[in-house]
């Protein structure tokens, strides 16, 4: 990556609260990798806190110029994020930085420690986590409380979608900085490796999602199976915390559905995105989704679940569904109206150019510089200061 020259002074920036890099899981990790490496190229010192993985090989100390700190995390869904972030904050007290970005509002109870240490901190609040089915009543209540605490104790709040901005304005009268994710533009990907999994370019439907109810993989599979589809449906994803939901999806499938499980081969994934007849996106609660942006950057025609977050990203380039019957109709329309899919493929690429990782990283840099400058002048705020720094 080319050196990016900036007029700002170099900062020491910590990125906390995710599984870390290399990005192998979700949106937060993708953001940390893409933004972190660009901040390094701008001349900043970036430290990423990573969850220690079970492996025989030693954990790397650097990645794409970022310093990595590997710390343990309990293998229990309800405790993993908060315990690892607590250890990360403890480490940070002895290895000070100029600014910190904390990902996930669930980590809000630890913000007072950073503030007491006079480390300016922005919280990336993510989507409406309390709507996820994997959390019980106690977990949902915790996330609602954590959102309020993030508003109270953050120097700034980061939202990755206008819909999330609107939620924090309505629920808490709190302003947020809108910083979306970026879309990787995939070019000259080819289709050579599709034959390895028995596929032909332009002749399959694609879903890439974790098996969680709010991602509606079951709805897509049900609608597809009830259609007269000729092209197979390829499903990439797994169920780290949802065995029962995973069984439901398996039970819905017929022999046209290919369940590939988790797939970390990035070249093969790029070919799958780039050559799909239709990319099906069922996510509903997570704000701007990196998998959706990846599909746009691959020039895939996209059919998405009908929620404000997806409409914000896709606009007129998308077609939308809410129930299995919608999916069935859209499947059959796509396979008999390839001209429409081609037009929407071109529209996807145009939409993708609105989401640029260099611009995203520049906004993170500006936010950190503003927080540091205000901290020096005794002007620290509580979650509402920087919303008007950009549109």
Short key terms for the protein model shown above:
391 residues; alpha/beta; Rossmann fold; eight-stranded mixed sheet; six-stranded parallel sheet; 15% strand
Outline the fold blueprint.
Blueprint: E1 12-16, H1 27-41, E2 45-51, E3 62-63, E4 66-71, H2 77-94, E5 99-103, H3 111-116, E6 121-124, H4 137-153, E7 156-159, H5 162-172, E8 177-178, E9 205-208, H6 217-225, E10 233-236, H7 243-252, E11 257-261, H8 266-275, E12 278-281, H9 290-297, E13 302-305, H10 308-314, E14 318-321, H11 324-336, H12 338-352, H13 357-376
Parallel strand pairs: 1-2, 1-5, 2-4, 5-6, 6-7, 7-8, 9-10, 9-12, 10-11, 12-13, 13-14
Antiparallel strand pairs: 3-4
Helix pairs in contact: 1-13, 6-7, 6-11, 9-12
Protein name: DUF1972 domain-containing protein
Pfam families: DUF1972, Glyco_trans_1_4
InterPro entries: DUF1972
């Amino acid at each position: 990556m080319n050196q990016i020259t900036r007029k700002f002074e170099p900062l020491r920036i910590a990125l906390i609260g995710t599984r870390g890099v290399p990005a192998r899981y979700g949106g937060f990790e993708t953001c940390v990798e893409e933004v972190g490496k660009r901040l390094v190229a701008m001349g900043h010192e970036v430290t990423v806190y990573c969850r220690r993985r079970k492996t025989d090989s030693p954990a790397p100390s650097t990645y794409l110029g970022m310093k990595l700190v590997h710390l343990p995390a309990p293998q229990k869904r309800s405790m993993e994020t908060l315990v690892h972030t607590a250890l990360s904050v403890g480490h940070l007290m002895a290895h000070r930085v100029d600014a910190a970005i904390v990902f996930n509002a669930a980590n809000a109870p630890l913000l007072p420690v950073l503030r007491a240490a006079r480390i300016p901190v922005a919280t990336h609040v993510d989507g409406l986590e309390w709507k996820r089915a994997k959390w019980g009543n106690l977990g949902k209540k915790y996330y609602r409380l954590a959102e309020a605490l993030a508003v109270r104790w953050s120097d700034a709040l980061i939202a990755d979608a206008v819909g999330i901005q609107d939620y924090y304005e309505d629920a808490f009268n709190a302003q947020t900085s809108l910083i979306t994710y970026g879309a990787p533009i995939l070019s000259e990907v080819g289709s050579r490796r599709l034959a390895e999994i028995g596929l032909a370019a332009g002749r399959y439907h694609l879903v890439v999602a974790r098996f969680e109810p709010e991602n509606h993989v079951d709805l897509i599979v049900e609608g597809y199976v009830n259609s007269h589809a000729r092209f197979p449906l390829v499903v990439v994803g797994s169920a780290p915390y949802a065995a029962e939901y995973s069984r439901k999806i398996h039970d819905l499938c017929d022999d046209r559905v290919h369940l590939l499980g988790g797939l970390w081969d990035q070249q093969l994934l790029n070919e799958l995105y780039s050559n799909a007849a239709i990319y099906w996106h069922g996510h509903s609660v997570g704000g701007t989704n990196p998998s959706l942006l990846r599909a746009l950057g691959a020039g895939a025609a996209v059919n998405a679940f009908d929620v404000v977050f997806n409409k914000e990203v896709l606009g007129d380039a998308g077609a939308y569904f809410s129930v299995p019957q919608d999916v069935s109709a859209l499947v059959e329309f796509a396979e008999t109206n390839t001209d429409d899919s081609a037009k929407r493929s071109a529209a996807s690429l145009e939409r993708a150019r609105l989401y640029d990782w260099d611009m995203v990283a520049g906004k993170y840099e500006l936010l950190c510089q503003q927080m540091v400058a205000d901290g020096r002048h005794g002007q620290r705020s509580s979650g509402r200061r920087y919303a008007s720094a950009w549109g």
